[in-house]
């Protein structure tokens, strides 16, 4: 007799709904197995035939960290395309490469950590390159497109599972794991939450990653907003993955909890489902979870909730249905289509900022291409390894002919003389293999070490001429004649060993420090000075060498020679994404580095026909007034040089648009840690100065006219129509933009706010109609008096045009809206964080679990204003709930002091609140003004009869 076939467990039955299968599998897991699933590297369960799983495959603009892959433009460059359909195709290509790479290397994960939807509020943020825009609407449009591409279009199975980064209000690298972003309710709802919400609601998001920072005094990894907001936006199970090391930060750097068991339990209860901590070693996290269970801080039901979310994603990825997975055979890697798409994206990301007619360049033009980035194709921390490479020099030589193109990099050619009179020397290493950092792939590239198979530097009588580049603030790189950068490996010796600067801690940067009649050379990666010893040149704590810098040629001299001999000079300037402005490091200025400003001046003096091509991860403040042409592109990936050449030649008509404001000066910027975009008038939404180049700006080689703007209310939306006509003599793309503004708002509202846009490709003389449906909710603001969104009655101006400042058409719409109501303070009191205006105040956590309080900055004095507070027929008593020590002073309108309530002695801790009372007399509607003095927290204000 044949033994009966064992029944298929329900979790293996593809006919059942995913939710039922998840519950069946969850019921079969032991508590120990569930606990193990909560680390980033979830182990296999052989007894159930379940494989290992890891969260977190970086895929911001291509598959990152796992070796060669197609490299698309940086995210901010994709944002500059203003083209969601293009970005959807990029996401689709990336997801196919993920699948193809996973088929050969199971280290490649299908849970992709992308895109980044943090708004580009402040251009000095070191991770500016990772976001799409300063505007929530544009960010969500681009992010939604990318996630749909990553997800695939099957109704049930996902090609990859995208996780949005970094929740929430995260725009500073300086002290990023300990700083708190003070985010008032209006900024929270009108700005920071919006990009996340609209992307999640679009239905292609598998999860979210909390950021390292705190918001309103509470770490994002224990944020109640995960439950209060995020999980209400979709019926899908969302997998919340911690950022790397952030669970430990709750104790180690933030000191928010006393023990790791408490911190881990609080994170899980708040909604974190997968803990990224201690690399592949899961023992610490699982030990903490077991400890939390033993202490009664967690229950098995809490584990179930998190494991359920992870399993939901794994089922959607087809892991348990290999024969039915429609994406199993859809992998595609480095295809001709992907290469063409990388070039198309790089072309569309280029923004023409200024053009006095110099561009496009005519055939036969003799071109000098100069600058530190003229022959570079730079990668960033979240790039894959290049399969193909195109620099501006290569692109222009290929397009115009090598004989027509002259090159000058503009580095300083130097030798370093020791006190003994010898020079630093790079020994030959003919037999050493060529190696590219990261070519083999790594789960954590931060752990990659430098090369030690090459001989260390020595000294001799002649020395080696080195190429010195100053990337700003005195941060230097030194490169040998063979193209290798001086670097320091773990053994402390200097070698010419790196193909490019890079790594989590860059080992290829130095600083020359004046010392006597010479300089000390400090290696920035180790913080140590360079010294010369019998066994070679190395870094050490003692006996630093004093060097004399012997300059053979200044970079500006080489640039001037090349520029003078050309018809047109193209200065390619910008940043190296691993230096001065990157993850872990914010910028300190908008200015170009001094070295590059010298090169630009030299080129312009030698040849007025100078084009400035900025290739950078972020905006610069440059003096563009005397330059005939200026372009900007983010680092454009593998096809960057070809794309730039085609735009300069006019083969491609530029159509990129700025995704963020370019400010004219550092003085235009608020403090990096000031997250109140309304109060400090940040971004194009509120900035009242004159930008260098405005949000949405971008020129073309053709011209466009706008006409026929109409707006008609249809139910809960407004249908806006207008026409765009190409009035030039060549085909081109126009990005038609629609903005709105409240004409007579009673509270600060945006000067204008993007409501929608359309990218149109039009031939000469061609006209197209633009139709944009705007929901009436787009005109709402967050009414702090009612703690909900509200459309204010009155006129709203609709503005159509080519940028936020280049408005071509206007019309007025008057929706009915809802009238304002006063705050019912007699019944509800005041929630202190719901102010209308403030000075010297920051929002902090009322308790570790939930709620907001307010406190004066640095324990000084702060003021709060609450407009239109309704005391009804009258109140006679006021109470304040406070902790700490200090005084709360109260007045109405602009009147005298009504009451001062002070703590007799400071409370024991920040969450130990006491209630103070004082008689007051108020009736009717008034503005309430509070002045807080001293290091106290105000959690609530109450009024009674």
Write a concise synopsis of the structure shown.
The chain has 945 residues and is an alpha+beta fold.
Explain this structure to me?
The protein is an alpha+beta fold. 20% of the residues lie in helices and 29% in strands. It has 18 helices and 48 strands. Strands 15, 18, 19, 22, 23, 24, 25 and 26 form an eight-stranded antiparallel beta sheet that branches. A six-stranded mixed beta sheet has the order 1-2-4-5-7-10.
Return the average pLDDT rounded to an integer.
96
Percent helix range: 10-25%
Count of helical regions: 18
Tell me the radius of gyration. Answer: 30 Å
State the major sheet: 8 strands, antiparallel
Provide keyphrases for this structure.
8-stranded antiparallel beta sheet; 48 strands; single chain; 18 helices; 945 residues; alpha+beta; 6-stranded mixed beta sheet; 29% strand
Task: Indicate the topology.
Layout: H1 18-28, H2 31-37, E1 41-42, E2 53-58, E3 68-69, H3 75-81, H4 84-104, E4 111-116, H5 136-151, E5 161-167, E6 180-181, H6 185-201, E7 207-210, E8 214-215, E9 218-219, H7 225-228, E10 239-240, H8 246-252, H9 260-270, H10 283-294, H11 300-316, H12 336-348, E11 351-355, E12 367-370, E13 385-386, H13 392-400, E14 405-408, E15 412-417, E16 423-425, E17 458-460, E18 466-470, E19 476-479, E20 485-488, E21 494-498, E22 510-515, E23 518-523, E24 528-533, E25 536-540, E26 546-553, H14 555-564, E27 568-574, H15 594-606, E28 610-615, E29 629-633, H16 640-649, H17 683-686, E30 704-714, E31 717-726, E32 732-742, E33 753-762, E34 767-775, E35 781-783, E36 788-790, E37 796-801, E38 807-813, H18 825-828, E39 837-839, E40 841-845, E41 852-856, E42 861-870, E43 875-884, E44 887-892, E45 897-902, E46 914-922, E47 925-933, E48 936-944
Parallel strand pairs: 2-4, 3-13, 4-5, 5-7, 6-8, 7-10, 12-14, 12-27, 27-28, 28-29
Antiparallel strand pairs: 1-2, 8-9, 11-29, 15-18, 15-26, 16-17, 18-19, 20-21, 22-23, 23-24, 23-26, 24-25, 30-31, 31-34, 32-33, 32-37, 35-36, 37-38, 39-42, 40-41, 42-47, 43-46, 43-48, 44-45, 44-47
Helix pairs in contact: 1-11, 2-11, 4-5, 4-12, 5-6, 8-9, 9-10, 12-16, 13-16, 14-15
């Amino acid at each position: 007799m044949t033994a009966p076939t064992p029944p298929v467990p329900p979790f293996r039955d593809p006919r059942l709904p995913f939710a039922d299968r998840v519950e069946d599998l969850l019921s079969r897991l032991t508590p120990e197995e569930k606990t193990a699933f909560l680390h980033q590297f979830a182990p296999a369960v052989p007894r159930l035939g379940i494989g290992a799983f890891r969260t977190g495959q970086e895929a911001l603009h291509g598959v990152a960290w796992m070796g060669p892959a197609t490299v698309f433009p940086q995210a901010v460059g994709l944002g500059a395309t203003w083209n969601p359909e293009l970005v959807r195709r990029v996401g689709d290509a990336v997801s196919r490469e993920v699948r193809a790479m996973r088929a050969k290397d199971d280290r490649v994960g299908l849970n992709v950590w992308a895109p980044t939807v943090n708004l580009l509020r402040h251009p000095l943020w070191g991770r500016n390159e990772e976001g799409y825009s300063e505007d929530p609407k544009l960010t969500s449009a681009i992010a939604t497109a990318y996630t749909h591409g990553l997800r695939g279009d099957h109704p049930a199975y996902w090609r990859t599972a995208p996780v949005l980064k970094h929740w929430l209000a995260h725009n500073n690298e300086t002290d990023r794991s300990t700083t708190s972003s003070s985010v008032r309710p209006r900024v929270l709802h009108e700005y920071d939450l919006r990009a996340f919400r609209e992307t999640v609601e679009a239905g292609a998001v598998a999860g979210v990653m909390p950021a390292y920072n705190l918001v309103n005094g509470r770490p994002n990894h224990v944020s109640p907003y995960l439950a209060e907001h995020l999980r209400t936006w979709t019926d899908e199970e969302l997998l919340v993955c911690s950022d790397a090391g952030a669970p430990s930060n709750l104790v180690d750097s933030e000191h928010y909890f006393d023990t790791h068991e408490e911190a881990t339990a609080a994170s899980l209860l708040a909604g974190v489902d997968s803990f990224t901590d201690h690399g592949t070693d899961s023992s610490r996290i699982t030990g903490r979870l077991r400890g939390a269970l033993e202490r009664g801080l967690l229950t098995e039901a809490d584990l179930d909730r998190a494991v359920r979310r992870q399993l939901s994603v794994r089922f959607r990825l087809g892991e348990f249905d290999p024969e039915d997975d429609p994406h199993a055979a859809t992998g595609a890697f480095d295809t001709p289509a992907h290469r063409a798409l990388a070039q198309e994206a790089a072309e569309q990301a280029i923004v023409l900022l200024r053009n006095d007619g110099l561009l496009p360049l005519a055939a036969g033009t003799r071109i000098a291409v100069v600058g530190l980035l003229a022959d570079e194709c730079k990668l960033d921390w979240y790039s894959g390894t290049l399969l193909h490479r195109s620099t501006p020099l290569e692109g222009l030589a290929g397009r115009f002919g090598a004989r027509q193109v002259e090159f000058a990099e503009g580095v300083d050619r130097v030798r370093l003389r020791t006190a003994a009179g010898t020079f630093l020397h790079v020994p030959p290493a003919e037999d050493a293999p060529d190696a590219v950092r990261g070519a083999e792939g790594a789960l954590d590239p931060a752990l990659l070490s430098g090369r030690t198979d090459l001989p260390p530097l020595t000294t001799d009588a002649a020395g080696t001429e080195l190429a010195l580049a100053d990337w700003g603030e005195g941060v230097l790189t030194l490169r040998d004649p063979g193209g290798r950068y001086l670097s320091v490996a773990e053994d402390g010796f200097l070698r010419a060993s790196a193909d490019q600067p890079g790594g989590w801690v860059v080992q290829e940067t130095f600083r020359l420090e004046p010392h006597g009649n010479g300089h000390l050379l400090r290696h920035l990666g180790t913080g140590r000075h360079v010294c010369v010893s019998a066994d070679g040149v190395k870094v050490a704590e003692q006996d630093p060498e004093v060097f004399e810098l012997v300059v053979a040629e200044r970079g500006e001299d080489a640039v001037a020679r090349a520029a003078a001999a050309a018809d047109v000079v193209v200065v390619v300037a910008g940043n190296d994404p691993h230096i001065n402005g990157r993850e872990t490091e914010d910028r300190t200025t908008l200015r170009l580095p001094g070295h590059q400003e010298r090169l630009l001046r030299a080129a312009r003096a030698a040849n007025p026909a100078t084009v400035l091509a900025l290739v950078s991860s972020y905006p610069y403040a440059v003096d563009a007034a005397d330059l005939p042409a200026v372009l900007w592109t983010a680092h454009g990936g593998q096809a960057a040089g070809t794309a730039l050449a085609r735009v300069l030649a006019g083969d491609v008509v530029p159509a990129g648009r700025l995704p963020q404001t370019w400010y004219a000066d550092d003085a235009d910027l608020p403090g990096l840690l000031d997250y109140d975009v309304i109060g400090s008038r940040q971004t194009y939404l509120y900035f009242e100065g004159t930008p260098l180049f405005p949000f949405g700006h971008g020129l073309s080689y053709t011209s466009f006219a706008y006409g026929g703007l109409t707006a008609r209310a249809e139910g809960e939306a407004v249908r806006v129509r207008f026409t765009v006509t190409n009035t030039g003599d060549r085909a081109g793309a126009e990005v038609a933009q629609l903005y709105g503004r409240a004409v007579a708002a009673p509270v600060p509202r945006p000067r204008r706010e993007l409501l929608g846009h359309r990218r149109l490709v039009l031939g000469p003389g061609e006209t197209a109609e633009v139709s944009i449906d705007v929901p009436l909710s787009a005109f709402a603001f967050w009414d702090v008096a009612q703690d909900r969104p509200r459309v204010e009655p009155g006129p709203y101006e609709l503005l159509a045009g080519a940028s936020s400042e280049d408005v071509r058409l206007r019309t007025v719409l008057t929706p009915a809206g809802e009238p304002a109501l006063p705050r019912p303070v007699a019944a509800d009191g005041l929630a202190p964080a719901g102010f209308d205006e403030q000075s010297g105040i920051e929002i902090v956590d009322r308790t570790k679990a939930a709620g907001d309080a307010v406190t004066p900055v640095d324990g000084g004095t702060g003021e709060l204003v609450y407009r239109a507070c309704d005391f009804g027929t009258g109140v006679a008593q006021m109470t304040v709930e406070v902790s700490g020590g200090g005084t709360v002073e109260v007045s109405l309108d602009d009147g005298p002091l009504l009451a001062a309530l002070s703590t007799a002695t400071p409370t024991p801790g920040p969450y130990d609140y006491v209630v103070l009372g004082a008689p007051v007399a108020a009736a009717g509607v008034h503005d309430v003004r509070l002045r807080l003095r001293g290091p106290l927290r105000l959690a609530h204000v109450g009024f009674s009869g």
